[in-house]
Amino acid sequence: MKPIEYDAQIYNTIRKNIKKYRKEKKITAAELAVLVDLSHDFIRQIESEKVGCNFSVETLYRISVALDVSLDALIEK
């Protein structure tokens, strides 16, 4: 059986994708925060590589719906 390879940088991958799709949609982090009913600071933390931040599957799902992208798109390298 082939060993499974995990993305050790999965949070950074997700951060970059959220920011990319948000900018493609031409909305600010503050506007995304309103759409997903989270604080602007929390969205900024999610997108920041400098801040260690964990977020729930529900949060990731809500962001994907607001950005009109699949969950797969947010975790894709």
Explain this structure to me?
It is a single chain. The chain has 77 residues and is an all-alpha fold. Helix content is 61%, strand content 0%. It has 5 helices and no strands. Helix 2 packs across helix 3 (40-47). The chain is globular, with a radius of gyration of 13 Å. The model has no long low-confidence stretch (mean pLDDT 93).
Secondary-structure map:
Blueprint: H1 10-24, H2 29-36, H3 40-47, H4 57-67, H5 71-75
Helix pairs in contact: 2-3
Instruction: Assign an overall shape.
Output: globular
Largest sheet: none
How far apart the termini lie comes to 24 Å
Order of helices and strands: HHHHH
Which structural class is indicated by helix and strand composition? Answer: mainly alpha
What proportion strand? under 5%
Question: Could you list the spans in which at least 5 consecutive residues all have pLDDT below 50?
Answer: none
Gyration radius, to the nearest Å?
A: 13 Å
Average the pLDDT over all residues and give the rounded result.
93
Helix count, per DSSP?
A: 5
Helix content: 55-70%
Q: What is the number of strand segments? A: 0
Pick out its properties.
77 residues, 5 helices, globular, 0% strand, mainly alpha
Short description:
The protein is mostly helical. It contains five helices and no strands. Helix 2 crosses helix 3 (40-47).
